[in-house]
Amino acid sequence: MPVSIKGAVATVTAAALLIICLDYTTYAATGDSLILGRKNTTAKPTQLVRRTDGPALSLKSAGNARPSLRVSSWARVPRLNADRVDGLHASRLSSRAVTYVIGRRGEVVPGARTWSLDIAPGQYQLTFKVLASPAETPDQVGGMICGVVDLDTLGPNTQVYTAASGNAMEGGMGNPIAMSGAEVVRVTANANPGVYCGSNSNEFTLFAASASFTTITSRSIRRAVSAPLPFRTQRGRIAFD
Hints:
two-stranded antiparallel ribbon; 1 helix; mainly beta; about 10% helix; Jelly Rolls
């Protein structure tokens, strides 16, 4: 059967395209080439190397609400440097504690005193502790109150972050009083946080005092559920079964 030149060219062209398509499919299966819009499989890692300055790979999605990258594993990616995680900036993910030492050991303070704390605005886990001894007085039991407050609000409407009070043991004038407190607080930009300590005696001796602020990113409040006591009480006394 005679074959025309046009038919022969068409046959050769179709065969060439078939070979190319088969080879293209083979590349997609072996990983020798990446085909957009299709599944690419490989038995070895795929590397992208850029010979000039700049990123080796740039991924873009339609709109900020759509992720530009998706992974199938929870495994940690070594040396991955991310500016944000779950929408939070990297600076908000790490907790940092700042501790302020209040006064000097053995310092005698007349009546009351305040100490300012140079703390940046933010949300903190605040803890403080004070060990001090009010001066002995013959007519009253020495008492003290200490806490972290907004110094600009000292007065009838003092803003108290956390505070505690205590009295010297009866018959033990001059014995140290231990006070401590903890609370999650938010320090605003116009606040002036500081420590206040006061005594009902003329003076008190400071043995140890500090206040610590630890940055936190969030806070949730939940209601505790009452639980039965592991013992019973009889006329104010504990009675175990």
